[in-house]
Amino acid sequence: MISPATARFLPILLAGLAMLGPFTINIYMPSFAQMEAVFDVTDIELQITLSLYFAAFAFMSLWHGALSDSLGRRPVVIAGLAAFALASLGAACATRIEQMYVCRVLQGLSAGAGIVVGRAVIRDLYTGAAAQRLYALVVMLFALAPAVGPVLGGWLQVWMGWRANFGLLTAMGLTLLAMVIFHLPETLPPGERQPFSGRALLAGYGQVLSNVPFLLWAVTFALMFAGFFIYVLSAPVFLARHLRLEGTDFVWLFGPATAGMMLGSHLSGHFAQRWPARRYLATGFAIMTMASLWNLALCRWAPAAPGWYLPYLFVYTLGMALVQPTIVLAGLDCVPQWRGLGSSLQLFIQTGFNAVLAAVIAPFFWHTPLLLASGAALALALSLGGVTLAWILADRASDASRAPHSGH
User: Fold this and answer.
1) Which end of the chain has fewer CB within 10 Å, C or N?
2) Taking a C-beta distance cutoff of 8 angstroms, is the pair 173, 81 a contact?
3) How far apart are CA 395 and CA 403, in angstroms?
4) 296-350 pLDDT, tens per residue?
5) pLDDT of 21-61, one tens digit each?
6) What is the sign, positive or negative, of the torsion defined by CA atoms of 19, 22, 27, 28?
7) Rounded to an integer, what distance in angstroms lies between the CA atom of residue 164 and that of residue 91?
8) Full-model pTM
């Protein structure tokens, strides 16, 4: 158990740890033009800094949870934050694009410790509606990052140049490190830890990866998130080239998205004890589908009107945030003995897909607004297929569990 004071502070701390990843992704996007000139590279070469970050983030996310299952939650987060601060400082001092590539890899290797372990901490402490309420509150606070990051980065770019963005990431890493050292309790008792060995780890991965419902929930979430995140990765092109906006105008994209995520997270927590999981999923996916249809129609008839994109971004992210706790927690409930490792694999699947999204998919779709909207709609359609299949498997499992009793 934790003290009431720690319980009140915990959502803020976990949200701060989760926000580190989005800040690292998008805070420097308004500086792309200046960085291209400084490093004498093309936009595709600079886009590689995103792909490398995602690839490293995805790889290391496989280990954060497993290490925390063995060593405890606190040591993994502390080590990750210390490494992140050093990598961010190195990026702020980079003079060649190759140095930036190395620092972005190091950032990717360390930034995910907080979000992976944070999910496991929630499941260590709470179950059922209490876990969903806490996770929804964390997501609601975390939702500030996509809006605040690029807007703040745009103003830092205007005032002090691109290096200030990485200086801010350094300060964030050090601040969170101090908060974790003094305020994050250890939530995994020694008696509940898993042995850290190659055989045990392979056995754990085998159990989790052979769990089809777990994989379905993870892939469903990654595809659903891609319906919005493709716009984040395409932001410099979408806003500057298609909508003719300035570097300080990133709020046009991230402002409504943040408002939608915060409202959706609030509603998710508010209805945690009133709505069954399927009602959450049906409602959320219906909302996202309506938003996608609006976006497709807009891009067909008024593709250069920035204000008309606001309803899509707000409504889609509202539906996404409404179902996010249900999807993530449903996945972890499939592997109760390996929550840390399960959280790692959830993030690995999402971030690995984001790496492909940044390197291949987003550049393919960002050439026109309609093409970009089509890519987002396709991701949502595939996600809807995944959640439908998860429902079918859940029904079959439920029927199978009742079958032996029906004969008595």
Assistant:
1) C
2) yes
3) 12
4) 988 888 766 666 777 888 999 999 988 888 888 888 888 877 777 787 788 788 8
5) 878 988 898 888 899 999 999 878 888 898 899 889 888 87
6) positive
7) 10
8) 0.69
